[in-house]
Amino acid sequence: MKSFFARYRESTLARNTVWMFLGQGLRIIVQAGYFIIIARSLGVQQYGAFMAVAATVGIIAPFIGIGSDKLIVKNVVRDRALLDVYFGNGVLMTLASGLAGVGFAVLICNRILPSSIPVDIILMVAIADLICYRLMDLAAAAFQSVEKLGITALITVLVSAARFLGIAVTALLLRHPTAEQWSFVYAGSTVVALVISLLWTMFLVKSFQVAPRRIRGELVEGFYFATGQSAQSVYNDVDKTMLASLSTLGANGIYAAAYRLIDVSFTPVRSLLFAAYPGYFRHGKGEISGAFKYAKRLLPRPLAFSLLVFVGLLVGAPLVPKILGSEYLRTVEALRWLAFLPFLKTLHYFMADTLTGTGFQGLRMRIQLGVAAFNVLLNLWIIPLYSWRGAAWSSLASDGLLALLMWFAIAALKRRQPAATVDPAPIVA
Prior knowledge:
The chain has one domain. The chain is 83% helix and 0% strand. The protein has 17 helices and no strands. Helix 9 packs across helix 17. The protein starts with a helix and ends in a 13-residue tail after the last helix.
């Protein structure tokens, strides 16, 4: 045991994973609190309306900043002196694209979502998620790039804590707040979290610099990052938008509640992915073999954990309506259908980060776009026939296809590239 803990103390990846797990674990507790309050106080219809807006805005969100958060990690991992420039460029790009994104979100939500959803909800969610939250992502990426993931973890907790306090106070004052009232609290609490995050970042970023030449030089790669993330949002969240349009808000509430629980169960794996992300750029350096060996060393434990989660969700699903209320009785079945998703997500995220770390973000983006298109087309056919069950089946098919395509892409690249000559040191995780 002494040797075991000594190895963990010496491993940066292990320490960072622990930090992210603690942060994400605390975030789970906080999110669970406000999720239960919101779900119970809004009811399945209004919760479905709010989540439809959030899912639609979430598809737009990755384009805000045009991949600035990913570019910070990629470049600063290799040269710490570039932090101030990439953070300054990121803030500029996020503000400019965020303002345009808010206008586009209001337009698109009014077009495709039910007219019963007030425009105030759309506007508040768009401001919170397209400007404030994206700036917080930038601050978190700055600390991630220098592997100070303790602060990164605090930033991820901060926004959830602010929202929990906001909705808890609102529920005490109003007893049964509406989705519209919650949207104002959602935006206001995100602004508070953003201010605190930027104050923290001032201790890391010593000067605010802007270098337009670097922005122009990396627009294409930034666009690859943004498009890949948006495609990821499509196959994760577009079903919630389409359920609201093609089925009912009630069906969307049932499905969205189940998917939220899937997201929660994936948190430990997400923590490892976040901590390991800079390592792909160090191990890759243009060679797929190095990054793939890095991924293979990390993968067994997350896969085993995902199988345990699968069993736990199947067994524990009947507890959901006891916690959220009888309106969510059908969420039990939805959760069981979705229970295998964490395993599929674990597979394709590790493979996808392998491509990114070796400079194949463009290939990763094209695969993700293809799967996003497949998901949308499948949903157009299956949701009108089977409602939220169809959405669940489509999610399983899409994540499974994504894992398969990522694996094939890496296998093809390994055949084309020579094996790495230096085997990286063993990883303790």
